[in-house]
Predict the structure of ABC transporter ATP-binding protein.
Amino acid sequence: MGGTEQEIRMKDVLRSFRNWGQLFRLIWNANPGYLIQITVLYLLLGTAPFLTLAATQHLINAVVSAVSDGTRDVYSAFAWFVGVTAFQQGLTLAKTYYEGLFQQLISNTVQEKLMEKALTLGLADMENTAVQEQLKRAQQDMLFRPYQMFTQMLGVLNNLVTLISTMLFLIAWKWWVVLVLGATTGVSFFTILRVNREQFLIAFQRAPKYREAWYYSFLLTLDKAFKEIRLYQLGTFFLDKFKTIYRDFYVVDRRIAKKRLVWSSGNQALNLLSLAGMIFLAVREAFQKMIGVGNLYGYVQAITLTQTSAQTVFDNVLSICQHNLYIEQLFVFLSLPSSEPTLQRKTTVNGEAKRPLETIESMEFRRVSFTYPGTKREVLRDVSFTLRRGECIAIVGRNGSGKTTLTKLMTQLYEGYEGEILVNGEPADTWDMERLQKRIGVVFQDFMQYEMSVRLNIGLGNLDVLDDDEKLLHASDSTGIGDFVRNLPKQLNTDLGRWVVKGEQLSGGQWQRIAIARAFARDADLYVLDEPNSALDPIAENEVFEKIRNLLQDRLGVFIAHRLASARFADMILVMDNGQVIEQGTHEELMEQNGTYAEMYRVQNNLYEVKA
Ligand SMILES: Nc1ncnc2c1ncn2[C@@H]1O[C@H](COP(=O)(O)OP(=O)(O)OP(=O)(O)O)[C@@H](O)[C@H]1O
């Protein structure tokens, strides 16, 4: 497992506050109305503890007076008390209602933003480990963190309102009480800040270990991995690795928890001491009849409230610092530069629309060399060939010789190559890239198996024919899977795969034929097929190639083949080795040359030959 250890200092924690603008915009965009309503509700709720306190004090004083001399209106005090309680309950209900909805909207917005960003990335980004890691970090807990952070900010506001109101109340009694409370809370804030900081640094440095643990649990629950894990008896091996990671975490967590317990106990003792001292003062004044029973209640409550709300403000500030760093990961991902050209760059050059491409008539590689971004090794070197309409090229060669990379350049999935790629005789990048890619049908080596209906599995190759049964069945026929589809319980509407309830299970070869049908559902000029026969049995292979050849008669075709018998069908064979085209010609020409191709062909033939 990869991943670099992260060194995070307090400076970085403070720096991460710069994301607040973006976070606010994100929350605002989710629903400005809810944002304002919830903020107002939190502020109003901040006054509730003080109002309850004042109403209770008023009620007690009224009752005491009424009992002793009948001078006070108990009923109006009671009405105030009920009114304040109803006000608080009403606000809480409204807050719960809006919060539930708003939280959902924010989490939807975050997910949409992540997906929209992923859509703007290019293949170079998707194949880049650092980008993938950043994506994982950004996804971590992102569904709840932005909202939690928002409510914690509001919690700070809300508690500040409570704090200020109770402090004013106390100042009217004895101003220095507020100073004592402030000092004791400050002491606990700074001591706990130290522990929190240590805990945070540890949590952040754990990111790669978390990912590793996640990967083990992912493997143990993945249907595709089950067979190997069961037969190689890897279950306990992975489980032990998982357990070790969490056991190590636990040891460190226990140490931090003990430290926290020691400091918190000290703080609690200090708080309790100051609280007891001040409450003693209030009780003594009540005994000396300097204040009434109601006021005694009011002061005791105000002292406790001041202390708890100050504590909550500090706790929230600490936890906001912590959230900040996670949220930063989201914004780092959202602002990653993309290797994919923007739509504007795909379709315009110097402010003018690029040439519209009607059809691809030819594609030529002129001394093309290519190095993957972030690497040093040239994986294609001086590759040259020409492909015209009606022709079909087979690319053969050892593993890692650059065949798939060549198809990535042909389909314009990577830029930044040296040399020239010409389409219809003109540089590929002078054509409207959107239209160019629309004229290409592809089957990748690692083609997709969509856990969806047959209709979608084929129609995703050309959304225009999604409802055209005739065209979809025609595409299935072109890979010899038409009759199979017609015999399925719901024909084109049959669901495929394990994730869908009652999904039809297909074999590897059947999935591959579906993927080829998807490419053929697209009315393209150029078809690029990367080992389209890898999962096909010899009879199916023959049948599929027969059909592919018919279909490609008046198109441009490129296919990668490891089984050289299929390469015989091609008009030209490119033999690649170490990023270079080392031989080029028809099957007969290459056999005659008696070079690498001829040797590969003979080795393969020997393999299949049954010795008498
Ligand atoms: N995304 C990537 N980033 C960096 N290097 C890559 C990337 N993809 C492939 N390579 C490297 O480029 C070289 C050519 O890979 P490519 O996939 O084109 O080979 P191939 O001929 O298709 O192999 P195979 O027959 O095994 O499918 C390999 O050495 C591989 O390590």
Residues 127, 372, 375, 379, 397, 399-405, 445 surround adenosine-5'-triphosphate (CB under 6 Å). The two ends are 50 Å apart (CA to CA). The domain at 448-523 is CATH 3.40.50.300 (Rossmann fold). DSSP finds 23 helices and twelve strands in the chain.
